[in-house]
């Protein structure tokens, strides 16, 4: 759902608490300016922006759905899982802690490798992160851009930050099934993000997606700028076949990506279903 006269519901955004460039408060202000009726905050592997975002949304009169984007790995490849209404408790909190620690070690290792050929240091990378932010390759990209090595994040990602680059270092992440079980255990609603992205070198196959459904994955993000029209059509038919819903979101990162708030949105009835599924434990 890319355009609609219905309420504009964007269920995939990031703040400076992970790899966006807006604070949660600035993100809410931008959402109001963009004419959104509902926004989901889905920072990577953290809920640290929830309180600020909720307070800002309440003050602005904007409906908000709190969530995260959980890093997972399948056959050595990155798969992201949106987790709506899932507080950092129990197994999910342990996953976040382990992932964030691994991301920090990975960031140091990549910065050291890059420093051999580019004029950046690990401290330069940290200067582009918000306090307590989940560290990611976008912060490395920002340091490279600031050093004049690349014009923007995209160029850096297409260069030394590519997964097949000699500078690349991976980080630990749970399997999609482990993440789904942890999200469900705290009453959250798991939805796989941009699974058929044309910018990634791997997509889960139908059997792998069906296994995720069998463990409680509630739906798939369909409307995303990295999904071709053919990919969106496939996701719609696949989810309809399996009785699952689809979502849409901008994957907004502030100035870090060209993605604009509200460029892809979610059907209002899907939002109603997500909130129905969120159990009392996570409210």
Automatic annotation (TrEMBL):
Q: Where is this region: Disordered?
A: 1-23
One Pfam match, given by its short name, reads PHP
SUPFAM superfamilies for the chain: PHP domain-like
Per UniProt, the ranges with Basic and acidic residues bias are 9-19
Q: Where are the transmembrane segments?
A: none
Q: Which InterPro entries match?
A: PHP_dom, PHP_domain, Pol/His_phosphatase_N, Pol/histidinol_Pase-like
Output the CDD domains linked to this UniProt entry.
Answer: PHP_HisPPase_AMP
Q: Which GO terms describe its molecular function?
A: 5'-3' DNA exonuclease activity; 5'-3' RNA exonuclease activity
- What are the residue boundaries of the Polymerase/histidinol phosphatase N-terminal domain, all occurrences included? 9-74
Name under which the protein is recorded: Polymerase/histidinol phosphatase N-terminal domain-containing protein
